[in-house]
Amino acid sequence: MDLQAILNTIFDEMQGQSDRGAVADYIPELAQVSPTHFAMSICTADGQSYHVGETAVPFSIQSVSKVFTLALALGRLGDQLWTRVGREPSGLAFNSMVQLEHENGIPRNPFINAGALVVTDAILARNAPREVLGEILRFVRQAAGDDDIHINHRVAKSEQATGHRNLALAHFMRAHGNMHNAPELSCGVYFHQCAIEMSTRQLAQAGRFLMGGHAPSRLLSPARVRRINALMMTCGHYDGSGDFAFRVGLPGKSGVGGGILVIAPGRASIAVWSPGLDAQGNSRLGTVAVERLAQATRWSVFG
Ligand code: GLN
Fold first, then answer.
1. Pocket of ligand 1 (CB under 6 A)
2. What is the Å distance from ligand 1's center to 256 Cα?
3. 162-216 pLDDT, tens per residue?
4. Which residue of 25, 118, 208, 248 sits 20 to 30 Å from the alpha carbon of 47, by its own alpha carbon?
5. Under CATH, which architecture does the 3-62+197-297 domain have?
6. Could you please report the per-residue DSSP string of the chain?
7. Which residues of the chain are modeled with pLDDT < 50?
């Protein structure tokens, strides 16, 4: 199978797409990004990598960071984490508040914002935010095998200034005893983890620990790798998760920066970036691109 040829064909098709979606504008810094970028990288289990487009340009990983903090939290706290956050798809927008009230401040899953805030709060424990951010960054750099990965502080500040919904979610969970640190602290760490920037080359590299298969990762046990993949498949695209599973058939985690990390278990780690989003806040062309890749490679977990 000629993966480079497949990527080149996908790239050509994407260049011709006129409906690229709209960049996220609720975080002012992200509104500045041009919707014309496109990049896709694949790291395969046999150590090869394939790239097309602007694969060295760093972008805001946003909610893709939730995969790394979940891995860190599971490694640190183990299954205790599941007393504070569920494992069911929410069927609602990533920043929705309605379910939380009905469900007593226990978020449905670790990938909606409320759930990710709990995960970050759990990692924070009683440590200093700066130290914990250092730890998150170290984990991501180690996963990628690349130290040149940084936080964009302008993006973090921009979200901090406008992140009222996230603060509201955190305060609500604090009222239910499910937020152990001051909401400003946990949200502060969360805004900075979301503002980590990576290129698709770096993100595809960083996703290798979720590939499973013959080369078990030192970062996380195989059982936990399977579970994170299950959550990516069922919850990784919020209320678009069912559609992503239907179209692509692979676990994936999106971010409003337009990036998606997709895992073909035992085969490959894939990163795609196109900043224009669909109505659910998932990369529009990114989804089309991995849909094409899954068709061409027959990598769907459903055969
Ligand atoms: N930082 C963003 C937020 O909390 C992340 C959301 C996303 O990427 N879906 O709103």
1. 62-63, 94-95, 113, 159, 166, 194, 255-256, 281
2. 6
3. 999 999 999 999 999 999 999 999 999 999 999 999 999 999 999 999 999 876 7
4. 248
5. 3-Layer(aba) Sandwich (3.40)
6. --HHHHHHHHHHHHHT-----B---SSGGGGGS-TT--EEEEEETTS-EEEEESTTS-EE-GGGHHHHHHHHHHHHHGGGGGGTS--S---S-TT--HHHHHTTT--S-TTSHHHHHHHHHHHHTTS-HHHHHHHHHHHHHHHHT-S--EE-HHHHHHHHHH-HHHHHHHHHHHHTT---S-HHHHHHHHHHHHTEEE-HHHHHHHGGGG--TTS--SSS-HHHHHHHHHHHHHHTTGGGHHHHHHHT-S-EEE-TTSEEEEEETTTEEEEEE---B-TTSSBHHHHHHHHHHHHHHT--TT-
7. none
